[in-house]
Design goal:
The structure is a homodimer of 419-residue chains.
Chain A lengths: L5 E5 L6 H10 L3 E6 L2 H9 L10 H12 L3 E5 L5 H11 L3 E4 L6 H5 L2 H25 L4 E7 L14 E6 L2 E6 L7 H20 L2 E7 L1 E3 L25 H10 L4 E4 L5 E6 H13 L7 E6 L2 E4 H14 L6 E4 L17 H4 L7 H15 L6 H5 L10 H8 L2 H17 L2
Parallel strand pairs in A: 1-2, 1-4, 2-3, 4-5, 5-8, 8-12, 9-11, 10-14
Antiparallel strand pairs in A: 6-7, 11-13
Chain lengths: 419, 419
């Protein structure tokens, strides 16, 4: 394997963060897992929960040590707390930081003004603090930042990896690819990307901005070792992806709800490929002052493709599935051109897993196993509407006593099941 | 004249905001002048001050009423206070809002992490709050937002007005012009522009984003009426433009300090043209859902052009001027292509004033008149350095007792002279 590095994973309590911390630990890196546990508090705030029960960070790192003999250092810390961040960076002097520590739900950011502001302030300030800490404490540290393919939107031209060479009036320049993002959340990522690009130009920060597609899958080599090591699976309309929602809807016998015409096309990848992409990025750092952008996904699908794939995969497993189209709560093109480049990570050696195999091998069977834990009220809750800002709908559902008590019951259940 | 509109000017205590409020009031609009007075508190914090003494907002609006019979409603309010903003918007139901209420200094944003974070949070949150207030309270209100030409940076292709049509791999789309901004301040404006563009797409907000060049000039028709109506003139390295610094350096017999080679080229305009541009924008609102971008400047100059122009203008007035080149504290190209389009406002009828005339008619004579108020320590203070984040230099100067007491004396002088 490659040389052992000191790596801090920010957002290590999240869906990707926790498997990432284990993956790097398994590879022999010295891993510090950092999180402010905001994701769990947002669950408590909104009555949402992971379908797969998840253990506390303390339980996770201790189980990991017990099973593998490897140590992951766990630190509760908020990236918005600059003083604590500087102290951590000075203590560990990381070779690389993997920044997954952001509010990452587009619908969450569209619930209300408060949610939009919280999302942008949390994400932009945390990222700025990290840029300043790298600049002043470990200027050669490699910043690996998780961006989103949703930063680009759905332009009518091919999406390049971060930059595009534009010929205009007889002159030419290579400039950041223009962005037309999908939500206040995606806008926060665009602001992050701009700040990182600036830091690389002015301070020589070495950075890789990973514009990631939609991630699916429930298992990595490491999460499968023990129930305490599993990562979260979200299926509600705020935190769950359309694919997760479809799998859960099918499991409980509801029709798959496609928003609008269903032609919305995006890039997707398996969570095991996320592990591989970030590891390849870590092993192949950019030069000082280079702000590299990779588009991190392996396949493109429309929402209709996903619904059809879930239905046909379940059919082969002897399970019935219906598909219905509902009014689209988002403002987005439902039929559009979409062709995004994603060769940089393949060039570094990525060997993709494909969705059709993963659906069969793990997602559908896992969801079937946990289907008794699905709260039908949560599953039926309509998504935040982009047009209204969503206040009314969300408030209505968040205040239903039945909904709240069901959420509380489930949180207790989750808690007890992981102890 | 055109119909009378209800207009709120945010940032009405600033260099442009106060003349803007008077200009619109003179034209018969119903004007509410809003500011949180942050600019005055930043002066107190850093020991800077306006060369031209400025009156309090209360004195200004009362003098304006006395001299013209017209009423400007003054409200102290912070755009980051969403509740108070909503109350104001509900009370006045404006036809248009002119948003000048942001931290607007690039060097200020580069002093330290704290200054970068304060700049981005203040500007982004204030603008988001305004977008939400318009959306929920006055959805047909025209948002006129002051952006900056510095959002674009200095690309090697012609800069278009907000959008560029890109032909790529046989397809074409018109997308936001790619931006490579100059500072954390300019990055905050880029984030604002992205948020506004999103609001127009999703909510139908009608907006004009004015990417303004560097503004110069000390007088408008209204500021010249009475000393209490004058607007600020900054000459220090944090708040003053290079042109202002040159005029003051020349007045006190110091050489003009050009940063680096001096080929840095930007767009410029007279403050009277700012009045005209914003008025033309107000009189010609965009459609619902349209996010219009105008590049608001009239002439391009390099720093060397400005220094030479100040020297030659003073020479014609019988005054001597020296020019020297100093190490550039910023990270920027010092020789580069620069050609920015600016036809939209000319098409609406703008009649530009030109710098060479304005320098003679008002700036140099005004600076000469107030030159005894120039604190040489403040004038000599080196600017914030882009590479270091600037902490050390700024802290050093901000803590010199002599500097502080000189600043305090001048603030008292300013205060007494305007009463």
């Amino acid at each position: 394997m490659s040389e052992s590095k000191k790596v801090i994973v920010f957002g290590a309590d999240g869906y990707i963060g926790w498997p990432m911390a284990m993956h790097l630990s398994r590879l022999g890196h010295q891993v510090v897992a950092v999180d402010n546990l905001a994701r769990r508090s947002w669950d408590l705030e909104g009555g949402t929960y992971s379908l797969i029960p998840i253990a506390s960070m303390e339980t996770r790192v201790s189980r990991w040590k017990e099973l593998t003999g490897r140590e992951i250092v766990w630190r509760k810390l908020d990236l918005c707390d600059a003083g604590s961040l500087d102290a951590l960076m000075s203590e560990f002097l990381p070779d690389a930081v993997i920044h997954l520590g952001e509010q990452r739900s587009a619908p969450f950011s569209m619930i209300s003004r408060d949610h939009a502001v919280r999302t942008q302030v949390n994400n932009i300030v945390g990222n700025l603090n990290l840029l300043f800490a790298i600049h002043s404490i470990v200027p050669e540290c490699h910043l690996i930042k998780l961006g989103s393919m949703g930063e680009y939107g759905a332009p009518n031209i091919d999406i390049e990896e971060g930059y595009i060479t534009i010929e205009h009036n007889g002159r030419s320049d290579t400039l950041p690819f223009p962005k037309v993002p999908h939500s206040f959340y995606h806008l926060s990522k665009v602001a992050d990307s701009q700040n990182i690009h600036f830091a690389s130009r002015v301070w020589g920060t070495r950075a890789t901005d990973l514009n990631q597609g939609v991630v699916y899958g429930v298992h990595t080599e490491d999460t499968a070792l023990h129930p305490d090591l599993m990562t979260r699976f979200d299926f509600d309309s705020i935190w769950g992806t359309a694919l997760n929602r479809f799998c859960v809807q099918a499991a409980v016998g509801q029709p798959l709800t496609v928003y609008g015409k269903g032609g919305q096309t995006r890039g997707y990848l398996d969570i095991r490929d996320t592990m591989a992409c970030i590891t390849l990025t870590l092993d192949n750092p950019p030069e000082i002052g280079e702000c590299r952008v990779f588009n991190q996904f392996t396949e493109q699908f429309s929402i209709n493709d996903l619904a059809a794939l879930v239905a046909s995969t379940r059919k082969r497993m002897g399970l019935q599935t219906e598909i219905s189209h509902v009014a689209n709560p988002r403002v987005e093109a439902e039929e559009h051109y979409y062709n995004a480049k994603h060769t940089a990570l393949l060039d570094l050696g990525l060997q993709p897993h494909y969705l059709s195999d993963t659906l069969v091998s793990s997602v559908i069977s896992t969801v079937e196993r946990f289907k008794d834990r699905v709260d039908p009220i949560l599953l039926q809750m309509p998504s935040v509407t982009w047009r209204s800002g969503g206040n009314e709908i969300w408030d209505k559902y968040a205040n239903i006593d039945e909904f709240k008590s069901a959420g509380d019951d489930l949180l207790r259940l989750i808690d007890s099941s992981t102890r």
